[in-house]
Amino acid sequence: MSMKIRLARGGSKKRPHYSIVATDSRMPRDGRFLEKLGTYNPLLAKDSEDRVKMNAERVQYWLSQGAQPTDRVARFLESAGLREKKVRNNPKAAVPGKRMTELTAKKAARNAAPAEAVAAEATAE
């Protein structure tokens, strides 16, 4: 059985509140879980200690049983010191997409055309 430590959404519309749960990976996001390990309230300030609360002892237990945390939960564990920090590198994040590249090229060509005309007039005089 593949185990996950992930977030289960609760709260009302536009007022999210998440539970950190240990569950079978085949279960739905908000479905059946084995144990509630903590809570996450994204509406609180980032420096608030009530934003993320978790039972570190039980999280360690589930990790030792082979449970895999999701990306967001893994970040919570890193900030709590329960897991070593993973090096992340996404070099393509700063590269503009195809459409933006085309627009930039058109703009550069449009700006270069008047500059060339001014240079041509200067040399003709």
Automatic annotation (TrEMBL):
Coiled coil: none
GO cellular component, one term: cytoplasm
InterPro entries named in the record: Ribosomal_bS16, Ribosomal_bS16_dom_sf
Keywords (A to Z) from UniProt: Ribonucleoprotein, Ribosomal protein
GO MF annotation list: structural constituent of ribosome
Signal peptide as annotated in the record: none
Pfam families in the record: Ribosomal_S16
GO BP terms, alphabetized: translation
Record-stated family: Belongs to the bacterial ribosomal protein bS16 family.
NCBIfam families noted in UniProt: S16
This protein's name: Small ribosomal subunit protein bS16
Organism from which the protein derives: Pseudorhodobacter antarcticus
Organism classification: Bacteria, Pseudomonadati, Pseudomonadota, Alphaproteobacteria, Rhodobacterales
